[in-house]
Amino acid sequence: MRADSYPDGNVEPPTERSPRATWRGIGWTVAATAGLLFVLNAGAGMYLGRARADFTYWLVREKWRMLDALEEPVDWLVLGDSGGAHGVDPQTLQQRLGGRALNLCTVVHYLLPGDVWMLERYIERFGPPRGVVIVHSYDMWRYPEVPLSMLAHVPPARWQYSSVQPNAAAGARNQAKLWMRRNFPLVSQHRALSRALRVTRTAVSYGGLSRGGQLIDVQANPESVRSHYAEHVERLRDNLTFRLAPENERALEQLAAIADAHDVPIFLASSPQYEGLAQLAEYRAYVARIASALTVFAERHPNLHVILPRPVSFPADQMQNVDHVVGDAARRYTRALAREIDATQLRAGPAIQHSQSGGRP
Amino acid sequence: MRVSTAGRSRDDKRSMLFTSRVFIAFFVLVYATYLLLRHRHRAQNRLLLVASYVFYGYWDWRFLSLLVLSTLVDYVVGARMARSDRTAVRRALLTTSIVANLGILATFKYFNFFAENFAAALGAFGLHADFATLNIVLPVGISFYTFQSMSYTIDVYRRQLEPTRDLLDFALYVSFFPQLVAGPIERAVRLLPQITTPRTVCATGVNAGLFLIVWGYFKKVVIADNVAVVADTVFNNYAQHQGLDLVLGALAFTVQIYCDFSAYSDIARGLAKLMGFELMLNFRLPYFARTPSEFWQRWHVSLSSWLRDYLYIPLGGNRGGALRTNRNLLTTMVLGGLWHGAAWNFVIWGVFHGAILVIYRGFARFSGTVARQTRFVQSAIRTAQLPLMFLLTVVGWVIFRSQSIEQIVHFLTACGLAQSSSTAQLAADLIFFSVPLAAYQIAQHASRNLLVAARWPFVLRPVYLAGLIGAICVFGKRASSEFIYFQF
Predict the structure, then answer these.
(1) Least packed by Cβ within 10 Å: which of A333, B231, B356, B402?
(2) A264 CB-side CA count, 13 A
(3) Among A3, A33, A190, whose Cβ lies nearest the Cβ of B293?
(4) What is the architecture, at CATH level 2, of domain A60-149+159-166+209-348?
(5) ipTM of the assembly?
């Protein structure tokens, strides 16, 4: 195996020749490298702030922008998760209930605290709307807390002064992590950057936002619905005990307090659901327990209403996944929502006038 | 014939992978303390010894007993050999060291393999044998440190090295943490003097070390871990893949194993340089080799040189005619293959590399004929040698990675140009992550300097480093997989 054992003309392999270096030179190299990384990081932050590199973060950012950019109050504020973002058509809601509606639904990770922060921000700017509709998927209630990674995408001013403080922000260690996530997108949003830079990967389209804030131009995906359904079935069969997570419980109490203090009706609804899941016995039993717990809570607060305790269901060819409807199915869901709101208002007493935009009762 | 696997897989929840936060925190602490002790090299040695044992024990504290056993046996053997001039005594002591070290290896790594295959062989003759197999975990790095420790006793026996009188220094030589679990397999004549004499942490060494470490991390978490996805997609479901998919899978593993293993060596050498140590070069652009013998001067140099010096040459080397030389080559390569693991695919891989060494050696007789050709013909031959050797290397890696003979046969017979729905994406992913490697290797080859980036103009160096670190941040797999050679 030695080169001199075989007269085969082997080329001497390359070796390692270290250049002479000085401590100052190393210092300059390290400093320049750090400076370049700072620039790279800043560039990554600017890019991510403008582009749709990560759909979830983009959606959250856009909804907060819509809220901050609002120049006039609205009558109906729709909050909640992606089930509502896809499923509630503000135009249809406006036609049924009158006034102006705005869909500020984001993603399930923000749980109920996310809705509280948005509502508090809106009231801070415009006072209470005519009504608030909160749409959530059935499994939102049991998630323990808003994850730190998602918290980093909400401006801290939104929740720092809220009475609903996220657990993920508690403590110096979490604060430090939050700061890192917010200020080092090169690391904290590496997946989004990786997807953007790997141009060879097939891009997936998640649709766009209408003027009213609804997610539109989304294609139905029955295959995804069915695989998503399988995951939900497994989860339901493993986790049958309904449990209202503490962070959601605090947010619910704060919502009730806002409803009472401002005399604004808040309607809690379930997001649209895939009919296969809606027919599952375990699912129906679980949802019944959620509805029962919420109804008991709502009985103590006259302005809190539980509508659509059981979800409106749709076939797979009208959905993107088990709780995202597309196209006309969203309009039908919104009409069902509006019917329930109307009926609840009638039962509750003096109806709120179907007035012009202005939104105050 | 199915291949068997060596030992049980470890519980990898606790490990000091170089790419883990635990290791980074560990090294920062050790290095800071090391620098504080800069005028007290013996204290530095004790610190490194404790750190090395903590490093190794973090995987599994029980493994420490084997490390200690190997260390004690070889230290005592070396010390006793120094006191005797009688060949018989020295030979008996050397035999003790070899038996002890190989015995440890045999028990933990090869017992089940040989027991199962012996039982299978008896079964072929209609005899039933029921051997108990051991349900034991393969200690990480055992193949590396036992060989490193044996090299000491062999060199002492050959009187190429005076035995050390300091047990703790010798223990550090065996357990030095940067290279303990995956090499380079050091020689006592190189590493022991660096341990026993004061070292200097100089700017040149630190500069080179930093470049090596960053490039090593990039190769591991960006290239190796990402092309592994391509390789695993094909290899783990090989029956569902044909044509180009198999070619891409083979190429992906070729890139993966090189980047994974050389990354470890680079990081190990870089860490050592930060502390003033110089570990041997382990990879010297192996995919630029034009012949098998050149390949083994470039790939895992520490192992190939160990096998050359302690197995091939004692067997007779290339003295004694073509037949004996070929026998020695094949024996060395088969045992070299077996070193990698107790499985038939490693044996076949060794046979494969031994065979091509023998074949190329046969063609070397025609080198005079080649030398008489025109420069154009010579150039054409030399140009063709590189892709041919690369192709042979890739075939070898297919054998190395495969889990069964059926898999090897499928790869070699079903590969071609046919495409599937996943071919484009596999190719795109492989190319995306291989281009930076290829570009830098061409620069290394052209400049004949493996540290070419450290010699670039000052303006380019931070761009290079920031680019690598940025890529590590963006493309690096967060849950980095274990280094491939840890399983050996």
Answers:
(1) B356
(2) 26
(3) A3
(4) 3-Layer(aba) Sandwich (3.40)
(5) 0.87
